[in-house]
């Protein structure tokens, strides 16, 4: 076994220890089906009424095309920067930087509002246990302030777990997923079987949606439901076989489709549309209470707690790795490239992500009602996600453009379908942005205010352009000369030559690292 000293000509590579099951765990946890169903169905029903099943199906179509684009790009260029690297190389560095930037900004907003959701769910659980007050403080699940503070405590805990290494984190997530999906399947299947509201095939008729604006808003919300499956590609450099990242993302995407459709039908079999909207983030609690008596009625709420915790942890992991990719190219600072010598993870970057998300969550306290905060965050993130998914799909079409003439069948899969999927999301995002600008006369912090909803993604993009200019003209990042990201596998360290942590620790013990 070689005992060559570690090279120091670049940032360290991540430790390869993950398989396809780990990829599924990261992707499924990041997508957070239970959280989306339990918290988001009220927002979706408020937008498209009883047409939630069909809008979920329609949103899945471009998602599938984009997943295929990710798989093809990852096959030829595995990199934890994913869209940031692929768009930069195929379209241009400014577009590539914005793709990476808006993905990171969306993830930070997601962590901020998911922290509040986690706190709210914990408070719901406390209320179910008969605990409604603590030292004179009302434990109100609808309080944005209290929910955020409690959720930030959970965020700190999961960040510590994420720092210790992604493999350990995925083991926890796999356990959480098995429990929450088991509970969700049992209760949703029971709701479909015994629900008092009549089933209707009109739920699958897109023409039942009353306006183009509501259709576009519903599509963006449904895209947000699916968002997260691409987290499997953010750990591709820690995966033993890059193909496992694609398999993990695609498996998670199809599982999410089944879960979301089942959840949408289950909710509408038990609740009317007004009841779904009224219950909002407490919809799963209502479902459990309607179908079973305590303590069994509390199981869906416990599953929601597990889902929220898992999605927080899985949100921290890919965000830190995206910034690691940008730090390697000097488009962001070197602090994001520091790999922990023991855990083989970007520890400092992971902690910084937690701190930024916590600050964002504190700012969001300015929206007093939790329901309003959730809807505002989901709408904002939905536009951001549509932007970077769309650009990545277009990058795939550009990269594989020559195959359209050489092999028309493969060209349809690698060029036409990704291009149509990307253009669909970018078109919906552009339409919705225009609609936001025309729906309100003034600005206020409200999910019903178009200027507010437009200002969040606009501010993210403008900030990204500012950071991009700084990286190009001050840091002199080579990324803006070539659009090519650093190849994570081009830098070999001792940890790269060992299959697991035990072998690498033995290597260190002999004094070679």
From TrEMBL:
<feature type="transmembrane region" description="Helical">
    <location>
        <begin position="373"/>
        <end position="400"/>
    </location>
</feature>
<feature type="transmembrane region" description="Helical">
    <location>
        <begin position="94"/>
        <end position="126"/>
    </location>
</feature>
<dbReference type="GO" id="GO:0022857">
    <property type="term" value="F:transmembrane transporter activity"/>
</dbReference>
<feature type="transmembrane region" description="Helical">
    <location>
        <begin position="54"/>
        <end position="73"/>
    </location>
</feature>
<feature type="transmembrane region" description="Helical">
    <location>
        <begin position="452"/>
        <end position="471"/>
    </location>
</feature>
<dbReference type="InterPro" id="IPR002293">
    <property type="entry name" value="AA/rel_permease1"/>
</dbReference>
<feature type="transmembrane region" description="Helical">
    <location>
        <begin position="412"/>
        <end position="432"/>
    </location>
</feature>
<keyword id="KW-1003">Cell membrane</keyword>
<dbReference type="InterPro" id="IPR050367">
    <property type="entry name" value="APC_superfamily"/>
</dbReference>
<feature type="transmembrane region" description="Helical">
    <location>
        <begin position="345"/>
        <end position="367"/>
    </location>
</feature>
<feature type="transmembrane region" description="Helical">
    <location>
        <begin position="175"/>
        <end position="195"/>
    </location>
</feature>
<protein>
    <submittedName>
        <fullName>Putative amino acid permease</fullName>
    </submittedName>
</protein>
<feature type="transmembrane region" description="Helical">
    <location>
        <begin position="215"/>
        <end position="236"/>
    </location>
</feature>
<keyword id="KW-1133">Transmembrane helix</keyword>
<feature type="transmembrane region" description="Helical">
    <location>
        <begin position="248"/>
        <end position="267"/>
    </location>
</feature>
<keyword id="KW-0812">Transmembrane</keyword>
<feature type="transmembrane region" description="Helical">
    <location>
        <begin position="301"/>
        <end position="324"/>
    </location>
</feature>
<feature type="transmembrane region" description="Helical">
    <location>
        <begin position="146"/>
        <end position="163"/>
    </location>
</feature>
<keyword id="KW-0472">Membrane</keyword>
<dbReference type="Pfam" id="PF13520">
    <property type="entry name" value="AA_permease_2"/>
</dbReference>
<dbReference type="GO" id="GO:0005886">
    <property type="term" value="C:plasma membrane"/>
</dbReference>
